[in-house]
Amino acid sequence: MSTAALITLGCKVNQYDTQAMQELLLRNGYTIVAENDPVDVYIINTCTVTNVADQKARQVIRRAIRKNPDANVLVTGCYAESDRQAIEQIPGVSLVFGNREKADLQKYLDLLHESVPENSASSLLQIKPVHHDAIREHANFGASVSEAGKHTRALIKVQDGCSAFCTYCIIPYVRGRMTSRPLPDIVREAKQISANGYKEIVITGVHLGAYGLDIRRQTTIADILESIHPIDGIERIRFSSIEPMNFPDDLVDRMAALPKCMPHFHLPLQAGSDKILRQMRRRYTTERYMRLVEKLRASFSDVGITTDVMVGFPGETDADFEESLRFVEEIGFSQLHVFRYSPRRGTPAADCPDQVPPHVSAQRSKVMIALGKRLGLEFRQSMLGKTADVLVEDSQEGKAQHLAGFTGNYLRVLLDLPDSAINQILPAKLVGIEHEFMTAEVAA
Fold first, then answer.
1. Is the residue at 104 inside a domain?
2. pTM of this prediction?
3. Which residues pair with 356 in a beta bridge?
4. Domain tally for the chain?
């Protein structure tokens, strides 16, 4: 029996795609094993959002080849789209295929099996790396795949690609233009997820707020929520991330009428300076962003607002950075992901003459991260003594006798419970803070 290991780097969209590829491998008789085990086939799903992501992808690829030099190493994802040639030049890589070609994985697997001599064992360890051109001659690019799920929460990808073209971002070039998935397909998958015992659905995509724009808003993200909300067994629904631009005007009101929708929103800000937002081509202002946050807080009690912030964007002055700091503090996010600007070849921002020196962006990152930690602590402190429903998910490594789960507003909680509590939603009183976690006691 052939073995396969899948390694995922990057966002929840990649996680979804990896799960779909894993399901296909299982249907083809593969046993899924850990990265460090003896492996016949690796599939490495890469990210290219920053230069650091590219570097990490190369490290992971080379590590896999060192561990199992006879394995077929298949590399896909956004880095495979942005710099296929660089990956193909790594000795030991068998095949590179982009995001749009993931649907052709079955054909690639068929070709791998065809490469086994008839008088040999069936192990893929005996296959020499497949020639790239031979694979591509058989490829038929463009289909989509649709199954996913992990732990007690399952992902549903409802759209892919992005047409926003922010000046710093490579994603529209490696994921393609925004495309919306048909609503009946989404509902069908949600019903299957429920049948498989999952209690929470995470709706994911590259640019969720833009869902439906390619079909003239005949269907919106709110229609998705209202369509899957009645499904028995699904008790929680949340977004992975939703951009402030193209945020549908009626989405908040329609979500507030759906009790299964969780009070947590990841709204990427990127900058708290209107000047920098314009240069990023983000298509909203800090005032508009603030109004959206205020509406969310008026509609959902104890709502968690998390975000991404970029520092060191070309042309960002000390005054611009201070303006971002003030705005981030004014919003009072519950969690902050801070990124240093990373030039991506082929994007407009990479050609800007006023690049911020690395030592300056590094210092700004430290300051913004420190602010984010303080705001996160303040949010957790505001929740002390309150009771919140927690979906118990798994044991927390290094935390003896503790299970962990998330509240509706996306606070990570430790609970002293037996494993039999996993996949239950339990009311818990939040009684303490342990680093980035909260500790809780199951309410009577």
1. yes
2. 0.83
3. none
4. 3
